[in-house]
Here is the input.
Amino acid sequence: MDTPLDQLLPRQTAEIQSIQAEKEFSRRLFALGLRPGQLIRVLRSGPLKGPLHVRVGHTDIMIRRQDARRIQVRLAPQT
Amino acid sequence: MPNTGKSTLFNRLTGAAARIGNWPGITVDLLSAKVLLASAMVEVVDLPGIYNLHGFSDDEMVVRHFLETQAVNGLVVVLNATQLDRQLSLALQLKRLGLPLVVLLNMVDEAKRLGIRVDTEALARSLGAEVALLSAKYGQGFERVRGLIENLLRRHPAAQRGHAEAFREDEDIEAELASLVGQSVHAPALLDDTRVQALDRWLLHPWLGLPIFFGAMFLLFQLVYGVGTPLQDLMEWLLVHFQRLALDPLLAGAPPLLKSFVEDGLFNGVGTVLTFLPIIVVFFLFMAVVEDSGYLSRAAFLMDAVMARLGLDGRSFVMQLMGFGCNVPALMGTRVMRSRALRLLTMLVLPFSLCSARLQVFLFLTTAIFSPRAAPVVMFSLYLASIAIAFFTALLWRKRFRSHEPLLLELPPYRLPTLKQLVLQAWQQSGHFLKGASGFIVIGVMLVWLLTHLPVGVTPASEQSWAGAIANWMAPAFQPLGIDALQSIALLFGFVAKEVMIGALAVIYGVGEDALKAALAARMDWVSAYSFMLFTLVYTPCLSTVAVLKQESKSWAFTALAVAWPLALAWGVSFGFYQTARALGF
Here is the structure.
């Protein structure tokens, strides 16, 4: 089952399935290492429905919820 | 790539002082330096850090424009060795330019600690480039890097342009990157950095994160101004003594008008610049620690939910807080923002921060007009007004300064800057301030001197002076605010610096500063005093702020807006308050 990234809970890890975003934004995501097939872990979410703190590969990134909604992920089996 | 230590390497290579920060892509202006490499003078240019050659952020366009238009001997690409899984895509894009390439993998010390191994030979073969490991911060591997760059220069003595095709989009890079990373980088798929995680657990805690952040900011504020203000006093003391011991005897025989011009105009202007200097040096010393430590991006994370609604982000908030000390360094601090729109909006909002100079005026007026019990409440209400007006301005203007860059910020690992980096940064910022703003400030101070001392023979700042004529002419505008013509001359002085307003009022009323409180209390009731303070709070903070606004925005149009809007707002707020209070019968 694919879910949007902003639905993940802290400490959950998932695999990126697809990214629905205009070219400029997906390019930026790609440059930061967010691309289909990569594992992504939500570390925490900011106070007051703030941004998500995620880790992709070797990089920690903050991403706003409305942007995270456009990234479809599939929960990885718990390791 | 941003945040990989380019500037540190650039500093090592050139010995010049490029700015260094643990913030994605800190280099704003293109720094360049001429260096002797391979027995020839070579110009080394420090380009901003970019993620992608095809991107449309301000920085990416700068770099693309540079590569499209300039012929170069070669490119040096600095990548973060701990993030090769994604950063190699930039190296692949640059490879398509066909230019001689040196790829430097920086921060090997961090990579080693995280268990990342890189096969540099495999990488060099695939990229067709020289590859070297480096720790620019501590200088490990630096001599070898220098050797590689010199080799490149010997083999390619002529500058050339890159292939134009490289600037077109390329879909194959994704697959190429995957295979390149697979061949040459050995590391766990998702990194586990226990040290960073332990710190983040507290500093980004859902409930404790914000209190810790405010505590840290409060501490920083205390440190900056606790150290900076005595230094500022010391500078003032030096200036006073210089005037008494050197300037006064020198001008003893000069005509009074010339003496006044040199001392109150010229010397006063230079003095204004110099008294700002200590606070700027100290501010940037401490800001460098915050920036390089990686905490500034965490502040953005913590405050983003609130600030995003205002069209700003958490970094704007940090600068807003720093502005309560002094607006000038806070404005210079907005350089950490990469999006121009976001930066301009922050610079428009920042001058509403009730700085320590305005605090002096308010402390004097509140004790003169209000009872000891009411005075603290009045002070507090002015701070609230300062924040409310800043938020109101952000809300109103956020559409005009909409940031088109989606907010994707790297949260870099915590790092400590070296002492050398700190000193370089403070040194460079102060030089920047002196070069960019000092002329403007000195001219402004002299202009106000001319207005208040001419025509020849008038009592300074009296109604007969040019300033008095202007004040009379503007009287219809200030009357509805409860501010009389003489007080509006003080506001004219306040345009130069708020610190001089009280002194100016004393001169205008022809009394000493001690008797001034009684003189003011006799002429103002609380409604007109509060209206006067509101106006003082909102309109242009000081000439130095205007000079820095111009220096940082590089736009006269924006500077004009940043002066005109607060003036209009100040009038509106004072008018609204004064007329409402009077209508209510106060």
Q: What stands out?
A: The interface with chain A takes residues 51-52, 54-57, 82-86, 89-90, 114, 116, 174, 187, 189-191, 196-197, 200, 204, 206-207, 209-210, 297, 300-302, 304-306, 308, 406-413 of chain B (CB under 8 Å). Chain B is about 65% helix and 5% strand.
